[in-house]
């Protein structure tokens, strides 16, 4: 599967951390049968290789009063794609940017504290973007399933 390049012990450690990233090295060691120090060394090696990218807190914007979450599909001319991606990358309201298949498209997710802030993103950042051929926006009403990263 996805983890063919990792030994069985690293796979077990990753599975435990995916279920609970706050699990202590001691708890992991008890479950996989190695010492806390050995777990720490393996986790650090996985981090150094870039297999484990980060530990984070995920905030659900739909649970915050007034927050607005939207997805944008932005089609640009080929020569403008890089500049558009960079402008969006620097905007704090924009949380994710993906280059997707199709005619020079970007899939962009933004979370704003209010409708007014989302409208400012549209009018001050997205509308004036260079080389935009087409832009569509979808407001997210609720989260049904949202998996972060690789699931084993």
TrEMBL record:
Entry annotated with the keyword DNA-binding: yes
Alphabetical GO biological process terms: response to amino acid
Xref: InterPro entries: ArsR-like_HTH, AsnC-type_HTH_dom, Dimeric_a/b-barrel, Tscrpt_reg_AsnC-like, Tscrpt_reg_AsnC/Lrp_C, Tscrpt_reg_HTH_AsnC-type_CS, WH-like_DNA-bd_sf, WH_DNA-bd_sf
GO molecular function: sequence-specific DNA binding
Domain HTH asnC-type: 6-68
GO cellular component, one term: cytosol
Superkingdom assignment: Bacteria
Key words of the record: DNA-binding, Transcription, Transcription regulation
Protein's UniProt keywords contain DNA-binding: yes
Name of the featured protein: Lrp/AsnC family transcriptional regulator
């Amino acid at each position: 599967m996805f983890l063919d390049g990792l030994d069985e012990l690293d796979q077990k450690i990753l599975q435990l951390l995916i279920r609970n990233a706050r699990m202590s090295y001691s708890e992991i060691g008890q479950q996989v049968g190695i010492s806390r120090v050995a777990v720490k060394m393996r986790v650090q090696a996985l981090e150094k290789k870039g297999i484990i990218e980060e530990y984070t807190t995920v905030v659900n914007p739909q649970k915050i009063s007034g927050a607005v979450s939207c997805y944008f599909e932005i089609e640009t001319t080929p020569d403008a794609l890089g500049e558009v991606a960079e402008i969006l990358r620097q905007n704090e309201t924009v949380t994710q940017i993906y280059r997707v298949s199709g005619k020079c498209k970007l899939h962009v997710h933004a979370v704003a504290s209010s409708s007014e802030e989302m409208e400012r993103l549209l009018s001050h950042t997205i509308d004036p973007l260079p080389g935009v051929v087409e832009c569509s926006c979808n407001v997210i009403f609720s989260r049904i399933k949202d998996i972060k990263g690789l699931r084993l």
